[in-house]
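JOB MANIFEST
job_type = single_chain_structure
chain_count = 1
residues = 343
[input]
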Amino acid sequence: MSPRIAIRADATAKLGGGHIMRCLTLAQALRRRGAEVAIFVNEEALVTVPRLKTEGAVHVCGPGADAAVAAIGALWPRGADLAIVDLYAWSAVEERTLRRVAPSIAAIDDLANRPHEVDLLVDQTHGRTDGEYGPLAPAAQLMTGSRYALLRSQFASMREEALVRRRQGRIVERVFVSMGLTDLDGVTAKVTAALRAALPEVTLDVLLTSAATSLPMLKALKDPKIELHVDEFETAPLMARADLAVGAAGTTTWERCCVGLPSVVLVMADNQREIAANLVSAGAARKAEDVAGVAKEIAALASDDAARLAMAEAAAAVVDGRGADLVAAAIMELASPQKRARA
């Protein structure tokens, strides 16, 4: 009998779509193992993350734990075998409530700032340790650190080829630009313009959604050196062939690291500050304070082969691309109906 697994996550213009994207990745890994997975999201998530419109088993759910209990119960009258929570607004109280429809609970977090009452807790932040969650989730199995970064399988499959390419010391020909699904304040257009001025001969691969503020402006440029990738989900090939990248310090951070892509990051939300600081400390990225700083740092890297190679190696050491499989295996063990029957 396939275990039934419910995932509850949100996306908004302010929050971004990273929580949903990592949950979609985990859902894929769980389905490969035979699980029946349903994803419960807020209504705004359907706009923020266009990918949801083509994803099966997605259900709109109201806020609060009671709403999640009702939605899961309506889909599966006997409840789920396990529920996964990826919500900053939830802590131990809501997780306890969710047990009314799921005997096992897992949480995905990256803040380490509130108590959890779960059986498994995953925090993919580079440098995060189990000790930081000891007093917050005393009963949980802990999977902390970037070893558990939730990446789609294509990143691991393209990793070695990308690293070989970087070690060849090629000139910079392409820069990958991805400022987050929500394109706050039209930042994608601003970054693209700054890079175009700094590196006029380089091709820019710009990733954004069809709802992005920057899209009309970028389309109007009709610049052959700016290639737009709208609502593109299969981004591993774009990152693997790029020589440099500019991005927010969010979910795509781990994707860039997996394929050893030297990057300049901008902090677009408070929860990204620690990620950016840890990456800089590890030599896996450079941080810019503003758009002008992005262009300056990218130009400097473009002219420094040794710095790019060192950053590529440091980034690749952060993430190997196997995290989703490790987390999915642990969740399947917890969700196993046979295991619960023995208990």
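[summary]
The mean pLDDT is 94.
The two ends are 17 Å apart (CA to CA).
exit_status = 0
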